[in-house]
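--- STAGE predict ---
source: upstream dedup step, 1 unique chain passed
mode: sequence only
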Amino acid sequence: PSVSSPPAATSILKRQKQLRRKNVRFDQVTVYYFARRQGFTSVPSQGGSSLGMAQRHNSVRRYTLCEFAQEQEVNHREILREHLKEEKLHAKKMKLTKNGTVESEEAAGLTLEDVSDDDIDVENVEVDDYFFLQPLPTKRRRALLRASGVHRIDAEEKQELRAIRLSREECGCDCRLYCDPEACACSQAGIKCQ
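--- STAGE serialize ---
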């Protein structure tokens, strides 16, 4: 009869070394670009329609990690520049209208083009300290949709979003001291009286 030798024992230390070699490394960032569309999925805090994106991407770009970081820095600086210009414009308007207490035709006529780039110092600002996902005003969202080729903005969404915002302002019921289940909106909705 043949004598079989027991299987060679593997060291726990060797197994840990093997696991360490299987690290995941990221060397590339893939960015998918989508055309803008009317959203129908979010509720902007201000009026108007929401922003969304097309079902399929229209382009793809690959970056190294370094290239992507540089691209983000450039984009964030541009967003910051626009934000600072808007703040400067608002400050000019406030100065001309004495903090909004006096009407001024000059203030009403001011636009972002009236704010010089020389008045904006983005280079000495730490870009990472700013938060970039800010709500967009209604006019800006509409302009973005038009620039993206959306010719007909669905007006029904505007009314639906308004109704949702109004419903969020009301929470609970009108009960005071005691709950009358027949008159309580919460009770009728099958939830605990708020």
